[in-house]
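Reviewers of the previous submission asked for a worked example of the structure-prediction workflow described in the proposal, so we include one complete record here. The input consisted solely of the amino acid sequence. No template or homolog information was supplied to the procedure at any stage.
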Amino acid sequence: MNFHDSCHGKPSEKTLAASLGVTTGRNPRGNLWKNFRVRVCTRLSPGIPRAEVHGVECVRSPCSGVRRFKNLSSQVSKTCSHCHYTIWGFVSPAYKCLGIKSEGLYRLCGASSLVEEVYGNLNKDGAKADVSAETYNDVNIIAGALKLYLRDLPSPVVTYEAYPQLIAAARLADEQSQLKAVCHFLKELPFAHLDTLHCLMAHLGRVAQHEADNRMGPENLARVFGPTLLRPPNDDPILAIQDIHLQKKLTELFIRHHHLLF
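From that input alone, the workflow returned the following structure tokens.
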């Protein structure tokens, strides 16, 4: 069975940012996904247009080729996320791999004060917010702002109404049955939520393609994003704990099969 054909069809190709928003008001459906613009994703995935970032040689380690790096200045040793060679930045400049291949992307945390700063700027200024590498040279700050944004949405990406059916689909015995059920229930999501989920899963799929470098395959990414995207009705903490393995299982299914489900 072709799941793509059995579903609603592929949404228009939008960036994640075009669908997201946090402001609510008299028209929550229209305002909810308004502000989170493309500039966040330009820092997180090579598949989305970005401002030019110049590659430099990994002069402090045996990396080959030209890659993306950030300057470091540190009194303690750092490890290159690409080649794992120990580098130092206190006496002279050093470089650390930057971007989608960064080890622990979405698992590691950026400085909390800067994550909050980016989050606030995006809520206030939308597309005009500065999230450039020149201003925030740690990609984990931008990744952290995205996670915070999704976590703080008053209505989660997977709506409270769709949650029970999708969790029930994750309990089915085999993956083929799970895919059929998930494909059916995804059609019940409002378009803004569905389009956001589609773009986010496509992005995480690209992140997972670099698992050998970033150590963030579908399972690890699902562990990070599952409880954020799938929240039980009324945010019931007991139910959230009981369902945590199903939230992870379902999110991993989204990531691995996003090209079939959306």
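DSSP finds 14 helices and six strands in the chain. We consider this example representative of the routine output the project will generate in years two and three.
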